[in-house]
Amino acid sequence: MTIRVSVVGAAGRMGSNVVKAVEAAGDCELALALDAGDDLSQITPENTDVVVEFTVPSVTLGNVLALVRQGVNVVVGTTGWTDDKLDQVQAALDDAPRPDQSVFIAPNFAISAVLADYFATLAAPYFESAEVIELHHPDKVDAPSGTAIHTAQGIAAARKAAGLGPVPDNTQSDNGSRGGVVDGVHVHAVRLRGLNAHEEVLFGNAGEQLVIRADSFDRGSFMPGVLLAVRKLSTGNYPGLTVGLANFLDL
């Protein structure tokens, strides 16, 4: 069966790569390619099996809610999601036209980044200290990245489950140099021309350090993950809201 895929944000850096990946996939066909100002109501269950949404954080929630009301499945690559926004998506799915309707949101579609995130949660209970550094191109509009936030949250949850206390830090005055804090884990964002998408997770004990690093040098590295999510949602076996590509990797 050919999967009919529509792309929202098709003219953007990521969206244009999704269009090419869909057109090159033997089991997919491009239904509609829409961008800013285009009418989303063109997308319906009659012409689309799965929508891929890659826009910007300021509009993605409205897009996803509209697409859910229109009865289509949605794969979302836009970052900037909060618990409140996720709750709104879940509420929309509760009232969706179809009981098997699904929305999938990925902090990152790169297999390397998803595995690094997973390995970090495994390592977290064994180290006294943990910090996250994410590095991206300067055109990225949000900081820290959704991937880094997700990684920090996973580290914090694993530390809490293991009964660990706060990460040690005796800094008294830092002028912001200690970065942001996500659930007690410091997260640092670097924006540098020449970079694409990179993350380092640093763990430390007395006398030892573990570094987990994932590098995506080209946006093409995200496309296998996008197509994996499209294929999974097209089966109808993932009703409701799913967050994170790890759910599709049998980890």
Descriptive account of the structure:
- The chain is of the alpha/beta class.
- It has two domains: 3-105 and 219-248, NAD(P)-binding Rossmann-like Domain (Rossmann fold, 3-Layer(aba) Sandwich); 111-216, Dihydrodipicolinate Reductase, domain 2 (2-Layer Sandwich), CATH 3.30.360.
- The chain has six helices and eleven strands.
- The protein has helices spanning 13-24, 57-69, 83-94, 111-123, 146-161, 223-234; strands at residues 3-8, 28-34, 50-53, 73-76, 102-105, 129-136, 180-182, 185-191, 197-205, 208-216, 240-243.
- The strands form two sheets. It has a six-stranded parallel β-sheet with strand order 2-1-3-4-5-11, sandwiched between helices.
- Helix 1 (13-24) links the parallel strand 1 and strand 2.
- The chain is elongated, with a radius of gyration of 19 Å.
- The mean pLDDT is 95.
**How far apart are the termini?**
27 Å
User: What summary fits the major beta sheet?
Assistant: 6 strands, parallel
Beta fraction of the residues?
Answer: 25-35%
Share of helix among residues? 25-40%
Fourth CATH level, the homologous superfamily of the largest domain: NAD(P)-binding Rossmann-like Domain
- The assigned CATH architecture of the largest domain is 3-Layer(aba) Sandwich
**Mean pLDDT, as a whole number?**
95
C-alpha geometry: elongated
| Regions with little confidence, pLDDT below 50 for 5+ residues | none
Rg from alpha-carbon coordinates: 19 Å
Name of the level-1 CATH class of the largest domain = Alpha Beta
Instruction: Please state how the strands of the largest beta sheet are arranged side by side.
Output: 2-1-3-4-5-11
